[in-house]
Amino acid sequence: MPVYENRHLLRLLLSPQEQAQQFVEYCRSHHVLTRGLCRIGTTTRGGMRGLIANKDIRKDENVVMLSVRACLHPATALKNKTFFSIFPSNEANKYFLQPNFVENSRVADRSIIRHNQFLLASYMTYLILRNDMNEGAQALKYINFMPRSEGDFEQLISNMNGSLDTAEVCRIAQSSIASHFGVSQAEIRPLLQWSLSMIFSRMAPIDHRWTLRQAFSDTPFENSFDVKGPNDDKNLVKEPIAFLCPVIDMCNHSEHENVALMVPEQTPTSHEPVICLRSLRDIEKGEELTMTYGGSPTELRVIWGMQQVF
């Protein structure tokens, strides 16, 4: 069990049934659509949760569909002025409002943590501490459904701790959040570790220009995803941004994937981007929906704690 599970600020006072009910409410209010094709259930992998086909699914069906508004991503944090104001303005501008923020700049040389990932983790930490369902479009209902004890993130946390200890932006953020809520930095650290672990293990890398432009609207980066030169891909950016997508993020890894993340192209009749989980082949009722995370064996072991590849 991860060490952060023993820290009191991460403990939930909700029953599993209450967590599930709140998550269902979040998905309904944010129009996360499954059309009854799948459900979250217990898999054959030692009791781990995952996505299970609720009925036979044909190839090329959109099993899950959701809009950008249903996701958590760095722009979600940027748009919450109450949260963003807890950082000293000079530091906020220096670390979170520079062009390289959307180019996946790292919090320190050789660190695995990116500035935009760290801002999202700080926002998740803020919401957990605030514990207000009206804050952040009820995102806490989604965050509270994320597992507090599943997964083996010890090696990932060990790799992150150096940056959390030494990177200036990490030290400033921990100090600012601790001061804002009147708690110690030692109590903040497990929340950041857990939030970063959720981001690394559950993120969907979104590289679609239209989707990112929509997500970052009304932020200083609204125009950062426009095509800048003749060599730029018209539809895709070079550096994908980490999104947390409800329901889709329950999909476990397998080298024999049967679904994949898709973002349909913009058309003249499109109103807003949609992120989809699409079937790659016919899937039988009761079969687990899995995707390939795309990491090397080392990444699978470090980030997801996988000792074997399914």
TrEMBL record:
Residues 22-294 form the SET domain. It holds the Pfam family SET. It comes from Trypanosoma theileri. This is SET domain-containing protein. It comes from the Eukaryota. SUPFAM superfamilies: SET domain. Coiled coil: none annotated. One of its GO terms (molecular function) is protein-lysine N-methyltransferase activity. InterPro entries: SET_dom, SET_dom_sf, SETD3_SETD6_MTase.
